[in-house]
Design goal:
Residues 12-29 have a biased composition (Low complexity). By secondary structure, the chain is α+β, with helices and mostly antiparallel strands. It contains 25 helices and 27 strands. The model is unreliable at 1-25, 114-128 and 291-296 (pLDDT under 50).
Amino acid sequence: MHPSQQPGTALPEGDATAADASAEAPAGDANVGRLAATIERMRRQIQDAHLAAEGRALIELAKGILVERLRCGPAQAARQLATLAEQSGLSQLELASDIIDQAAQDRISETAREFLRSARSGHDGRRHSVSVRLRAAESGVLDATDTQAVAESLLEHALVPLGATTVAVWAAGPDASLTLAGYAGLSAEEAMRWRYVPPGVVTPARQALMERHTVWFPALREVGLPTIGHRQAEGGRVAVPAGTGGRILGVLEIGWPHDLAPQPPQIERQIEALADLCAHTLEASEPAPCDPPGRVPSNPAFSELVNLADALPDPALVLCPHLDSGGRLTDFRIVHTNERFTDPAGRPRHQVDGGLLLEAYPLAAERGGLFANVEHVHATGEPFRTERMTLTTLVDEVRLTTEAAVSLTRHGDSVLLIWRAHDEGSRLAGILQHAQRLGRIGGFEENALTGQVTWNDQLFALYGVSPADQPIPLERLREHAHPDDEAGIGRFLRTVLHHRRSAATAFRLQRADGIARHIRVVAEPVFGTDDRLLAVRGAYQDISSQHWTEVALAATRDQLAHSEQQTAERNRLALQLQRAIMPPTRETTDAFGLRIAVRYRPAEKDHLVGGDWYDAVVLPSKQVLLSVGDVAGHGIEAATGMVVLRNALRGLAATGAGPAQLLTWLNLVAHHLTDSVTATAICGLYDPRTRVLRWARAGHLPPLLVRGTNASELPMVAGLLLGAVSEASYEEGRLQLEADDTLLMYTDGLIERRDRALQHAQNHLLDIAGHPAPTLDQRLEYLLTHCNSDTDDDTCLIGVELR
């Protein structure tokens, strides 16, 4: 009988031939089937033998637990384990893991129980293997001689069943650096390249270290963060802090070859349990922690820290972590105060020394306060410094506040806290004496939280306005300056307001009474404890021509004014060269219901003549040509290539061809008629009759559409950059514009930053592009001011508003 035919059934006519052929098959086929079954049976036996060998330590440990609980001998415990396994339908290894979980009640036990609860609604064969894998990994970690063996054990026993292919164990340094302590699934060459990650380099592991919690990356290529093995596996990645007692000793990083879907909580708990195992090995290589409370620490490193604190000219405290019975960080003990320590509440040193930080200063626990920063420094090793922090103490239920400069650094397992209290009266007196000595200086302060601007009387006189008038904020400085000084003022505003650094610039102040004065302005930002900008403080100094005698005398003592004058002159000459090549059209033009405004910002370095261009012109076909482009490189060659491509595009557009065809021809010009010029570009044609914009791109960032208060990028169309290959084709996109729509086209100099991915900069641009603006010109000025690029590249920006 045919194997697929049952008694009482008939084969279809079409299968009769197949049945006959099967009946005539040689008997050798049956032997092949028996051989395959034998091989499969032997393979299962080998797997069972490997599993038994790997779990022998767990079985022996479970026998020991039964000996202790049942008060029996080892032989009886072994028989009892075998009997229980047979009755429960489990293997001895799975039962041994369950017994260990019940006895340990640790993190791995919690993970296994949570996985069991999730599977109670239906049978899940994996629920026991989870505990077995984690216990086997734990056994491998305990047997490992170094962190390298730990990484290999984790991948072999626990992570391969989850689909992971790479493991990296990072050790956190006292300065928040990362050192590769172990790896698996990666080549030795890759490990050598990533053996050390200095502080400040953003990687998945460092992000987990700084945020102090597990960080999941479903697709590593989407975030653009560099890390070990990212070239081989750009799939999912997870980074988990590994620490104990409130201190992060390192980071466990696991990689998958494919993108990760959202993981269930049970898998997340498994990963965190593995990180706890890594912390065990990393802790073994750590120096001895602080001695128990009530006893002077005795290790040499701690003695050096105490000597350092005693040598400091400011009040200093040495703090050690205070753990509860479960090993969790609850507070920090003040184990030493130096001789210069003065308690803000007036208590003597001996009442503070040896106590807990939150008992001595309970208000330090306020959100974002001192305790949170101490905890972060202790956990990550990243130093913390601020020039102004409010320290609050309670004296007879009365809150006393003191502002101080605070510094926190980690040394081993200890934290050194240094503060220097500010004497507000002395500080204000010093500022007054300084202003009186310099003369003709007007001071100001702008509150970044409330927007309030405060001037002194001298500054009102400098501007020629009454003290009853409203002070002028820094963002409106352009409105009162000569147009030729706008570039310098723009760089000054970006440095202070967005790069948050001190800056100075010189400009010509145009007062309302017609008098012009040469002014030098200096400003610096003031930050709070959470690195938030609180205020901007600074001064204006009159360096006008009517005081040439005074300026000449000052120049003999200080060459700063002379060097600034030379720098300003070089900037003006560079700006004239830029305008000769690429005129910065300032006037807003109207054409067929479109309001068009353009801005050109030259590179910040004088000698970098850029290759950015823009164009907005009405064609003979009554369509409007809109284009921006960016030639690679700087210098005369880039500027010459820009002129060639810009003029060529104008000429080609007169043919009436569409944007995609125009870029195809322009690519031939770049490849064959220039000296190896490559460039990116956007070409758009607007039809006033249909209000439709057709556009194409050649490797350029897509335009932005602002509709109402929402800003979005136009859907990406394909197109290779100009000049790269001789033959290239380009896709074409279409956009139906509506009344009050605004279209923004720009070059990458507007948003590029050295320390951020381009995607992050584009998202920031979308946020500020939707900011309400009364006019198109004010919208472009707002973008130029608030886009905090720092690559010293020139920028073209074109705005089109449909009325």
